[in-house]
Amino acid sequence: AMLGETPTAPTLLDLTLIPALAIEDLKLEVETPEWGDMPLGTLRASLQKDSSGRPHLVGRMVPALEGDQGEFLLEGAMETDGRLVFRSTARDLPLGPGFLPELPAFDWIRVLYPEGRADLDANGHWAFGREALPQFDIRAVLRDGEVRLPWLANRPAHTRVDIGAAVSYTPRTPTNHSV
């Protein structure tokens, strides 16, 4: 399905027709009109049948962070209605000025020398053939964060930060116009 098209009604999927699949070192990036290509990370995953014969996805993604530190653990399963239901977690990801894309839009953040650790949890689903984009929820916690305030440059003053946030995304459909 393409963006803006009316989704088709769910049809049952014969899960026995889905073959085993292995993905090794697939580099992921997002192309944006304003910022160009932004690397997300490198993916390694496999799709195998579980004990009930249903396809089950497991894998990991190493994010495109400074020094390739940290990883996202991935897990998912194909449902008979054609949806891939997935979950991803990451713990103790190191964040510093190097995790920001080298783009002018992020210069104002870079001058604060942000540092900290992040924990992320995401879950969602993607109905292949009916939705152009997945629906997902992401919860993030930034802990032990630190920024340097430029106007206090002559002092060793820092601001400690602990922040929690949640984001949800549901693609627009003709019956759902909220994002």
Lay out the secondary structure.
Layout lengths: L20 E12 L3 E14 L5 E9 L8 E7 L4 E13 L11 H4 L4 E13 L7 E13 L11 E11 L10
Antiparallel strand pairs: 1-2, 2-3, 3-4, 4-5, 5-6, 6-7, 7-8
Structural key phrases:
1 helix; 8 strands; mainly beta; single chain
Q: Could you characterize the architecture of this molecule?
A:
The mean pLDDT is 77. 2% of the residues lie in helices and 51% in strands. It contains one helix and eight strands. The protein is mainly beta and 179 residues long. Strands 1-2-3-4-5-6-7-8 form an eight-stranded antiparallel sheet, with no helix packed on it. The protein starts with 20 loop residues before the first strand and ends in a 10-residue tail after the last strand. A hairpin with a 3-residue loop joins strand 1 (21-32) and strand 2. It is elongated and about 65 Å long.
